[in-house]
Amino acid sequence: MGNRSVENLKVTCPCCQAKLTVDPVLGAVLAHEAPPKAGPHIDLENARGILDEQQRQREDKFADSFFQETHKEDILAKKFEEAMKKAKDAPAGKPIRDFDLD
Questions:
Q1: 77 lies in a domain?
Q2: What are phi and psi of 62, to 5 degrees?
Q3: Three-class SS of residue 24?
Q4: Which of 37, 61, 71, 79 has CA atoms 20 to 30 A from the CA of 28?
């Protein structure tokens, strides 16, 4: 083993900028310090616009949900009529038995 330094190496990861402490003799990582996490890059000048957009989206979703709920009976009746028309137009076939599915 040649003339190795006993001092630990401090290395910065090129991918994530984490700081590693490595033992040169053993080649093992002794310590790991995670890189600081960056906060969201939101400009406070645009915050009001973002909040207004989110409010509009919530109101739109609520209006759609309210419309669907108030017209539920009509929608289900139309779906049932379409299914009945489709069933009348389709030829009556042989029913599938559980034994046929095996």
A1: yes
A2: -65, -40
A3: coil
A4: 37
CA-CA distance, 79 to 84, in Å (whole number)? 9
CA distance linking residue 10 with residue 36, whole number of Å = 17
Q: Is residue 18 situated within a structural domain? A: no
> Does any domain span residue 64?
yes
Domain tally, the chain: 1
pLDDT of res. 5: 55
- Percent of all residues in the chain with a pLDDT value above 70, rounded to a whole number: 94
Give me the sign of the Cα torsion angle 50, 56, 59, 63.
negative
Encoding tokens for residue 33?
């310090």
> What does each C-alpha distance from 3 to 6, 7, 25, 28, 60 come to in angstroms?
9, 12, 10, 18, 72
What is the 8-class DSSP label of residue 37? Answer: P
Domain of residue 77 covers: 48-88
Inside any domain, residue 74: yes
